[in-house]
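User: Predict the structure for this protein chain, please.
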Amino acid sequence: MRTSDFDYDLPDDLIARFPLAERSASRLLHVDGTAGGWTDRRFADLPGLFRAGDLLVLNDTRVIKARLHGVKDSGGQVEVMVERVLDNHEALAFMRFSHAPRPGSRLRLADAIPATVLERRDDLFRLEFDPARTVLEWLEAHGEVPLPPYIDRPAEAEDAARYQTVYAARPGAVAAPTAGLHFDDGLLARLAALGVATARVTLHVGAGTWQPMRAETLAEHRMHSERYSIPPETVAAIRKTRERGGRVCAVGTTSLRALESAALAGDLRAGEGETDLFITPGYRFRVVDRLITNFHLPRSTLFMLVCAFGGMALMKAAYAHAVAQRYRFFSYGDASLIERADHAL
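Assistant: Here is the predicted structure, written as structure tokens:
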């Protein structure tokens, strides 16, 4: 397949650049991959689309304030986007600059943080932060919320809370698992009262999720790697859900990729790992029956994933419907609930 097979027209004014006043006030497109149709709903209607015994799997990663502006010791301006915290004092980061800094170059970030460039790894730089604080402490004190480039505005005070799920717990992501942004405590309580269980996974979303696909064919593309963790309690919850005839619903493509990555060898296994799983039409899903997710960029790996999950022809038609009905797109946009297709395409 070619990357261009996953293109679609999206008016710029449908890109949501600000969150709604209430998390659960967004719209919801319910897409049935087996029946081959869709229904327009509200996200607040979600409890009516679940039944007792179903399971929601949430990604509890927490977004860190990963963006920093600063200067090189030569005086040149730099922008740093932390991709991954390696340990208490080192991180991998994307950097923007007029001239690439060499290993050994000193930086001063946010007019507060001394840092040193240790090495370059392809598109990433390994940085050492001043040991007076940990990397996470420096970022929390001086970093900016790393809004996606398509939001196209500086982060505001509201974003610190709204570009974060209400159940975020484990710091490490530089992009939010955005399907979870629609849930508030009241909606989660309503689902629990109906007998819908919840379980957690962690996948620390990297800045590579925003990188455009440069390959002309899917076979040429290589995914960026991300860390994930599956607790034993989540494996047990999924087993119990299967035993009682319930459905496993991943909240977000990140939860889905973590679960499917941990089941590539057969049965779902608890533990930690790295995943560069690239899910495209024809993939055989092993764990997830339903997927809650936002609307994704044209030609993106995430749009390819939802086409694999719901059926390519149906998802392209559903997205055309969403554009025509003026759904809000991307991180702060509306959501979809997709029932897994029984067919590959």
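The first strand starts at residue 27 and ends at 32.
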